[in-house]
Amino acid sequence: MVAAASVVVAVGAVTGMVSALDDGRSSDDAKPLVSRSPSLQPLPAVPTPSPTSASPSPVKSASPKPSPKPSASKKKQQTVAASALLYRHPDSQVLDWVEAHPGDARRDVIESRIADRPAAVWFADFTPSTITARVRAVTSAAAVQGRVPVVVAYAVPQRDCGGASEGGAPDLAAYDGWIDNFAAGLGSGEVIVILEPDSIAQSDCLTEGEQADRFASLARAGRVLKAANPKARVYYDAGHSDWNPPAKQASLLDQAGAASPASSDGIFTNVSNFHRTSDEIAYARQVLSALGGPASLGAVIDTSRNGNGAPSDGEWCDPAGRKIGKAPTLSTGEARIDAYLWVKLPGESDGCKGTPGTFSAEYAYELAR
Fold first, then answer.
1. Residue 122 is assigned to a ligand binding site
2. Quick one: where's region Disordered (predicted)?
């Protein structure tokens, strides 16, 4: 991914998060499995001699002026903060590891600082016949607990521009149908939807016509998701602070419907990346300011691995010296920042500490201790 985010890296996004994949079991079984597709090869916002190095650190600019309607922004933030707690899905690789290693000296740290915290559940496979039931299994379980689940829709065609996280629906018509089925599983309670990491920030590989078609499909996706569940909060891909300049990213987001409250509740940043929360807050506000739209639009930030910021050498694959970031919360105390989320689960490898997407106790312990 990006340069990709997600390689997402550059982020983006997606390697090895908790994923609810269809493996042929009952359609009601949403036990998360790791998606093998997401592996990260950063796509720098500004190309550098090394294809695997992150983009150069951006010039830090001051935060934008306060929203012209601060009262509205503040009111929205308080509403979000008053929501129920975030949901922790009971099936994940880290929980499996904790259960299987009661005597491991690293267990208590990994359990208390990673396994016990809520993380997003990824739906990264194209399975139209089972996606409704599997999304519903997550949202209904969260509703029983009175908590808010975070679900990631990751099946857009040509995702990752044919990189390590390639996959998804065969075409946009099929993707539109998959989104319809995804939306049918959202239920009626609060839910946060992370819509297609890297799909906007990493769209330069598409032709102008392909880009327009993708953006139209993403705008439709937001409308469908919010129409299916008015309490769903849908966030669009803004990359991260070391990728596209805010004005460019805002222009792309606008074309994808992210400025319209009928499709969007705002943007997400830093998925699977390491950039400091303070940098992401400033960047998100700049993007939102350039994007326009109602003052109710906000941002969510992936803080799962950004406790020490991004490596100075641009390393993106399980880099040493990183730490988990701020705990997931719906109450950030920051204007226009709706939540800090763990979209990527700490300890799931980018591919250097283990097979991409598999849990590494060694890496989890390094991040958590």
1. yes
2. 20-80
